[in-house]
Amino acid sequence: MKVILIPGDGIGPEIAQSVQTVSDALQTGIVFETYLAGADYYQHSGKLMQDGLYDAIEKAGYALKGPTATPIGTGFRSINVQIRQHFSAYANLRPVHNMPGVKTRYNNVDLVIVRENTEDLYRGIEYMYDADTAHGIKVITREGSQRIARFAFEYARSHHRHKVTCVHKANIMKLTDGMFREAFYTAAKDYPDIEANDVIVDAFCMKVVTDPSQFDVVVSENLYGDIISDLCAGLVGGLGFAPSANISDTVRVYEAVHGSAPDIAGKDLANPCAILMALGMLLEDVGMQDKADLLNKAMTDLLEEGTYRTKDLGGNAGTKAFTRALAERIESEK
Question: Where would I find the beta strands (DSSP E) of 98-236?
Answer without folding.
Answer: 110-116, 126-130, 133-136, 163-168, 195-200, 217-220
